[in-house]
Amino acid sequence: MAGLRDRLPRLLPALRALLYWALVYGYCGLCAAVQLLKLVRCVVGQGPAQTFRRAAREQPPACLNDPSLGTHCYVSIKDSGLRFHYVAAGERGKPLMLLLHGFPEFWYSWRHQLREFKSEYRVVALDLRGYGETDAPLHQENYKLDCLITDIKDILDSLGYSKCVLIGHDWGGMIAWLIAICYPEMVTKLIVINFPHPNVFTEYILRHPVQMFKSSFYYFFQIPRFPEFMFSINDFKALKHLFTSQSTGIGRKGCRLTTEDLEAYVYVFSQPGALSGPINHYRSIFSCLPLKHHMVSTPTLLLWGENDAFMEVEMAEVTKIYVKNYFRLTILSEASHWLQQDQPDIVNKLIWTFLKEETRRRE
Fold it and tell me: Which Pfam families does its entry note (predicted)?
């Protein structure tokens, strides 16, 4: 017994790890089974022809080439060998505002902000690694958080900037938090939309079954190939559903996506191999969290849609303990997960207030 007591402290980390991965892969299997049942029901109910149909989309919708949104640009990163696509608005030489989108989105999710902030900023809406017209490495190890953080640092250097106002939504919010933690000198102001501090997310998802259920796609995405297939059936019905359904889409009082907006999303993600890169972002997440270093020293604004179908609002309130500098949280009632598209006028006003308020505080 004495020997067991001596060994127990050394065994506990291994036991915790075993339980952790058993939970991850057990829930992963459950999510896969649910999706498989959905597929069977779809095939039986609608027939194979309807289930597996895909409309041909050879030309992008006109909205993706709207000159009022900015200029399409590309930058090649020497170290990674990747070419990144972005849309830029505002004059070169103005302070940089860098926008990082979430899933399943791309630069176009920031169309309202590109128009709004170009008067005082060089606004750059990036296609993250693996998304849209940015290069997509094949192997999932190329999508680890370290790679994604390095991408943003390299892009800033390539654009000729040493610092920026950094804004991220959803998965882009996760990356924005990590940049502010790892490279605080690069971020003058941090604005995150509908994503808590990464440590809050990690701890909350393991302790609250409701959040684990809401984040079930994180687990489903661990399976190779099947998630990409499920997104594509019924001519990308699942993708459309995320933005338009009553449960997950933009609310009744929100700025609904137009038919052309929705077609822009489907066009981008219907290109050959276009879903694998975005989903690969999630396939390394469970081995990267929690963080060793986690405090944020940058002035921070956290915006949150109260009706977010994927994130519990309590996580937003807990996030403040990880910010050592000025922190403001604003929760918008009746707003969805897609906040910068759902309530663009309010979001833009809140961002302007935060930017100008911080300037006055420094003065």
Answer: Abhydrolase_1 (PF00561)
